[in-house]
Design brief:
Blueprint: E1 2-7, E2 10-13, E3 18-26, E4 28-39, E5 46-51, E6 57-59, E7 67-72, E8 77-82, E9 91-101, E10 108-111, E11 115-120
Parallel strand pairs: 2-11
Antiparallel strand pairs: 1-3, 3-8, 4-5, 4-9, 5-6, 7-8, 9-10, 9-11
Length: 121
């Protein structure tokens, strides 16, 4: 079994900052790509940022220069530092992890439970 636990969401004023965390645990052999996605009410889920096992990153244009994704491979944990938050960043944020479980031969995608981020104007 694999568990993804997210934390760090909340309510913040425009211009403020939040830091999200996503910790993976369980029968994990190796983690490949990790990423953050978000879904606002009435909209489709969209990618926010992704990071490879080697640390290569890519971001949605809407968050470039404001958000920073990082990971701690020793802790199987990923972070999203969000600065200069805007009301349009309001959404439920989900972490996604592609991993290989112990004893398995195929990569699998897992999702966190989601954490609400609300930015007030």
């Amino acid at each position: 079994q694999v568990q993804l636990v997210e934390s760090g969401g909340g309510l913040v004023q425009a211009g403020g900052s939040l830091r999200l965390s996503c910790a993976a645990s369980g029968s994990i052999f190796r983690i490949n790509t990790m990423g953050w996605y978000r879904q606002a009410p009435g909209k489709q889920r969209e990618v926010v940022a992704r990071i490879s096992s080697g640390g290569d990153t890519n971001y949605a244009d809407s968050v470039k220069g404001r958000f920073t994704i990082s990971r701690d491979n020793a802790k199987n944990t990923m972070y999203l530092q969000m600065n200069s938050l805007r009301p349009e960043d309001t959404a439920v944020y989900y972490c996604n992890v592609r991993l290989l479980r112990l004893g398995q031969a195929s990569w699998e995608d897992y999702w966190g439970q989601g954490t609400q981020v609300t930015v007030s104007s």
